[in-house]
Structure prediction request, 115 residues.
Amino acid sequence: VQLQASGGGFVQSGGFCRFSCAASGSVSSINIMGWYRQAPGKQRELVAIITSGGSTNYADSVKGRFTISRDNAKKMVDLQMNSLKPEDTAVYYCYVARVIGGAFWGPGTLVTVSS
Prediction:
């Protein structure tokens, strides 16, 4: 499975940003798609995930501000990030997991939120 993400960049506090990630390759059994992030000096953490059935899970820190969505036919997952805060500054990684056959990570996209 290959993951290609777009989005990110430099955003002012209170602003918004949107990520998109497209999966290609052996994608037939992908179940979970989502996003993780890693801030400087911190461990990678879950941001939001969505199952093929549409169930979602968000980190408490982003609930009400971020929205994850996916297109099962296109094997794409999007993350709409609103009301961004400086503490959202991190490298964001697209993530997919297959029912059988492991999990995969995208290359990472930096978002910098200025205060």
